[in-house]
Amino acid sequence: MNVLDAIANRHSYRGEYQSTPVPRENLITIMEAGLSAPSGCNKQTTSLIAVDDGETIQKMHEVINPPVGKTAPCMICVLTQRVNAYRDRCFAVQDYSAAIENMLLAIVELGYQSCWYEGHITDEDQIGHKIAEILNVPDDYDLVCILPVGIAKAEPTVPRKKAFEERAWFNSFRNI
Is 40 a residue whose pLDDT tops 90? Predict the structure, then answer.
C-alpha cells in the first residue's frame, strides 16, 4: 500500500476487534511513524505509550466511561508537553495532531484499524488524567488521546465525504 492508498483507506473504526495481539515490532513501527511527524520549531512535544498488557488495559477501561475500544488488544496513549516554541506560542496541539495522523496511516498500512479518541479523553470528566495515573505519567505531561489498535472484526464503515468542489478551489475561494 502506498501513502495515498493508506489515506484513502483510513477511517475511524469504532467496532469490535479480534483478540489477535499486535506484535511489538508493529507497535514500534507505528510509534516511530508518529514520532517522525513534523514538530513546531522542532520542540518534539509529543510522547507515546503503547499498552499491550491485558491487566493494564483492563485498568484503563475501568476509567473510560462510556467505553471505547473495549476489545482492542492494544492502546497507544498520546502525551504532550506544553512547551513554548516561538514568540511565546505553543504548537503542542499541532505536534500531536501530526503524530496521530502519521500513526493512523501506519496502522492502516499494517492491516489494523483505530480511532482517534481525544474529546472523550480530555473532557471535563478527566479520563486522560485517570489513565495518566494508571500509567505513571509525570505531571508535566498531558495525556490527550488514546488510539485503540487491532484487527477489525468487521469492515470499517466508510463515511460520505463532501464533493471536492465543495471544499477545495484554485486561485480564490469558490471560483466564481
Answer: no
- Among 71, 66, 96, CA closest to 81: 96
At 176, is the pLDDT very low, low, confident or very high (cuts 50, 70, 90)? low
Integer Cα distance of 134 and 129 in angstroms: 9
What's the start-to-end Cα distance of the chain, in Å? Answer: 38
pTM of structure: 0.93
Closest CA to 129 of 118, 119, 139: 139
Any bridge partners for residue 51, and if so which? Answer: 75
Spell out the domains of the chain, with CATH numbers in brackets: 3-167 (3.40.109.10)
Chain-centroid distance, C-alpha 149: 9
Give the length of the chain.
Answer: 176
